[in-house]
């Protein structure tokens, strides 16, 4: 019988890249396994008390996941890059004391500036490139590409903020996310 061999080097490299890409939905794997369990043994489980208990507990898991801040993974990656010596840029940095109604434009501004950091990392081949990429990926997943059309006219555009150092930018970004998670 003829078989096809997979190249181990490329597969290992691809696997390590996939392994390093984090998302804020880490529980998907657990939920998928529970789905498979329930799907294959659904009727058997519903015949006894233990099966019903497991079914209701599994149904409750997605609801508890929503109680956590959707920016948790972004915060973790910000902690990873804040000490980077490779990144030396000036970035438009929003104030942490802006109005509550300006939170979405402020967050979008921080993520736009993260694109500048990613570009800088790609040029300098810095050690934190993957963490910066993860921040952007998780940020985009958290926004779900929804643009709010109700932004107040008193909210500043990103370019209207003062340019600050990378360190100050990260500190303000962390403060804004922590305020959002409260």
Question: What's the topology here?
Answer:
Elements: H1 8-20, H2 28-45, H3 49-65, H4 72-81, E1 90-92, H5 103-124, H6 129-143, E2 163-165, H7 166-181
Antiparallel strand pairs: 1-2
Helix pairs in contact: 2-3, 4-6, 4-7, 5-6, 5-7
Strand portion, in percent? under 5%
Q: How many domains would you count in the coordinates?
A: 2
Shape: elongated
Q: Assign a percent range to the helix content.
A: 55-70%
The ordered string of helix (H) and strand (E) elements is HHHHEHHEH
Q: Strands of the biggest beta sheet: in what spatial order?
A: 1-2
- Give the second-level CATH assignment, the architecture of the largest domain: Up-down Bundle
Report the average pLDDT across residues.
74
By CATH, the topology of the largest domain is Growth Hormone, Chain: A
The CATH class name of the largest domain reads Mainly Alpha
Main sheet summary:
2 strands, antiparallel
Low-confidence stretches: 1-26, 63-67
Write down the Rg.
22 Å
Secondary-structure content class: mainly alpha
Query: Quick one: how many beta strands?
Result: 2
| Count of runs of 4 or more consecutive helical residues | 7
- For the termini, the CA-CA separation is 60 Å
The fourth-level CATH homologous superfamily of the largest domain is: Interleukin-15/Interleukin-21
Keywords: Cytokine, Disulfide bond, Secreted, Signal
Subcellular location: Secreted
GO molecular function, one term: cytokine activity
Protein name: Interleukin
């Amino acid at each position: 019988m003829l078989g096809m061999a997979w190249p181990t080097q490329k597969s290992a490299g691809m696997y390590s890249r996939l392994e390093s890409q984090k998302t804020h939905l880490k529980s998907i794997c657990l939920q998928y396994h529970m789905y498979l369990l329930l799907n294959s043994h659904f009727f058997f489980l519903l015949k006894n008390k233990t099966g019903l208990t497991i079914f209701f507990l599994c149904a409750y898991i997605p609801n508890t996941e929503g109680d956590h801040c959707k920016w948790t993974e972004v915060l973790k990656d910000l902690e990873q890059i804040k000490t980077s010596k490779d990144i030396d840029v000036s970035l438009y940095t929003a104030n942490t004391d802006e109005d509550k109604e300006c939170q979405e434009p402020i967050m979008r501004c921080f993520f736009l500036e993260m694109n500048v950091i990613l570009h800088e990392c790609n040029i300098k081949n810095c050690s934190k490139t993957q963490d910066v990429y993860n921040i952007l990926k998780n940020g985009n997943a958290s926004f779900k590409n929804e643009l709010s059309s109700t932004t107040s006219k008193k909210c500043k555009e990103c370019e209207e903020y003062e340019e600050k150092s990378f360190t100050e930018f990260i500190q303000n970004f962390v403060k804004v996310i922590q305020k959002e998670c409260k």
